Amino acid sequence: xxxxxxxxxxxxxxxxxxxxxxSFSKDDKLRIAVKLDELGVAYIxxxxxxxxxxxxxxxxxxxxxxxxxxxxxxxxxxRRKDLAAADDPQLVSLLDSGAPVCTIVGKTPASQAQxxxxxxxxxxxxxxxxxxxxxxxxxxxxxxxxxxxxxxxRENRAYAEQVLTAACEGGAxxxxxxxxxxxxxxxxxxxxxxxxxxxxxxxxxxxxHCHNDSGTAVADTIMxxxxxxxxxxxxxxxxxxxxxxxxxxxxxxxxxxxxDFKCLPPGHLAMLKDVADxxxxxxxxxPDRHAPxxxxxxxxxxxxxxxxxxxxxxxxxxxxxxxxxGNRRRILISELSGKHSLTMKxxxxxIDLRDSRLGNAxxxxxxxxxxxxxxxxxxEASFVVLMHKVMNLWxxxxxxxxxxxxxxxxxxxxxxxxxxxxxxxxxxxxxxTAAEGDGPVNALDLALRKSLxxxxxxxxxxxxxxxxxxxxxxxxxxxxxxxxxxxxxxSTSVWDTVGVSENxxxxxxxxxxxxxxxxxxxxxxxxxNSQEGQEPS
Length: 537
Fold this sequence. Notes:
Elements: E1 7-10, H1 26-39, E2 43-47, H2 53-62, E3 71-77, H3 89-96, E4 101-107, H4 110-116, H5 121-137, E5 141-147, H6 149-155, H7 157-169, E6 174-179, H8 186-199, E7 205-210, H9 217-226, E8 231-234, H10 248-258, H11 272-283, E9 300-301, H12 304-312, E10 330-331, H13 339-348, H14 356-372, H15 380-390, E11 399-408, E12 417-426, E13 429-437, H16 440-452, E14 463-474, E15 480-489, E16 494-501, H17 504-522
Parallel strand pairs: 1-2, 1-8, 2-3, 3-4, 4-5, 5-6, 6-7, 7-8, 9-10
Antiparallel strand pairs: 11-12, 12-13, 14-15, 15-16
Helix pairs in contact: 1-2, 1-11, 5-7, 6-7, 8-9, 12-13, 13-14, 15-17, 16-17
C-alpha cells in the first residue's frame, strides 16, 4: 500500500448508531452502506451481528449488495474467558454474517480485563490471540481494536505491547489503537502513536480510533496519521456515543485538500456533502449548519466587506473551494449588507440589480424591512418576491380583499375549532372561500390554496411543512413584532418565506402569500386573467 494512502474505516452504522437519538432501521443501514461505498471508503462497519437481530438481518441482506470500493465488516468482541473461540456464539455469528472482514475489540489495560471481564492478564492475551486466530483460520480478514489503548499504554506500556502482539500472532492484519474515552490531547496521541508504529512489524497496518469527549478527535486523528497510522476510523458527521466520534466529514477533506494523503478515489470528494446530508436525514437529526466543509454555513458570507472580497478573490475568506466537497457559496442578506452583496445575491436568482437606481432602491427597501423585523438570510423565496416587486416585475397573481379567522371552543371537552375565510380577487374575479384547519394558520393556508386552485391547479402540489414563530423586541410601547417563518415544498424543491407584523395571523398571512406566489412564479405560471385554470407555460 502506498505510504500516502489512508484506509477510511467508517463506523457510522455501528459506533455512530450508538449515539443518543440515533436509530437506524435495517433499510436505513442498507441505504447508507450503498452511499458510503459510492463515496469510496475502504471499510464499512455494518454492526454487531451477535448483539441484536436487526444487525444480523442487515448482514443477511447486505450480502446481495455489490460494493465497488468498500469491504463490509462485522463487529464483535473476543471470546469469553470460559469458552473456546469455536464455541463462543458471538464469534460464530461473525462468520455466519458472511462479512469478508471481522473486527474484534479487546481490552488493553490489564486492570480493565480483571475488573470488567474477570480475566487475568494472561487469559486476556489468550482471548485476543485465539479469537483472531479462529476468524483468520476461517478465511476472514481480521482487524483488531485495542480498546482503551492509550490508558493501557500509560498504565503498563509493556502489557499494551503484548496486547497488540497477541492480535498480530493471531492473524490480525491491522491493529487500531483506541482513545475510547476521548480524553487525550493531540500531542499525547502524536507521541504514543509514533512509539507504537516503531514497535509494530512493518506488515501490520496501524489504525486510529478517537472519540470527541475533549473536542479534539479530528486533531487527534491527524496527529496519529502524522505518526504512522494509515487506517482511520470515524463516523459521518461525527455521530456516536457521548460527544461523538472523529468526524470523517472533516477528516477526509483535511487530508485530501491540505496534505499529500489520499482517502478516496479521484473525484469522489465532491460527494461528501450529499453523504453527510443523507446520514443526517436517515438519523432523523437536524444537520449541523456550522459543520466544517459540509455545513450550510461553511461558505456563507454576510458582512459587505467580506462579500466584496470573496467576489474578487474567493480565497480571502474561503480556505477551499466549496464545490470541492459538494457545497456551495451562500451570500447572506441582512442590515449588514452593501449594494455589492445585494447584487451578488440577486444574481443567484437571475435578478439583475446592476443598475445603480435599482440596486439602491433594493438596498433601501431591504434595510427598511430588516429594521421592521424581517430576516432574509434563509427566507430566500421572500427575497426573490421582494426584489421583483422593487423592480416592478412581479406578476399580480391575486389581490387580497380580506380574511377572517375564527377560533372557537364550544365546551370544556370539545376540541378547539379553527376556521378561516379568505376573499380574493383573481383576474378580476372575486372569490370567497372558507376552510377548517388544525389551527388558525393551517385553516388560513387551506382557505388560501382552496381559493386559488381553481385558477392555478398546479398549487395542488404545494404544501406547508414547517412553521416557526419568534417574538421580536417590543416596539411602540407594549406592542411586540412577531416574525413568522414558513417552509413549503412541492415535488421538486423546498423554499422558505417570512412575514412580520404585530399580529401573528397577519404575519402568517404575509409569509403564506409569499410562499404561494413564489410557487407559481418558479413554475413559470402566468397570472390568471379569467376563471380558467392555468398550467405551466
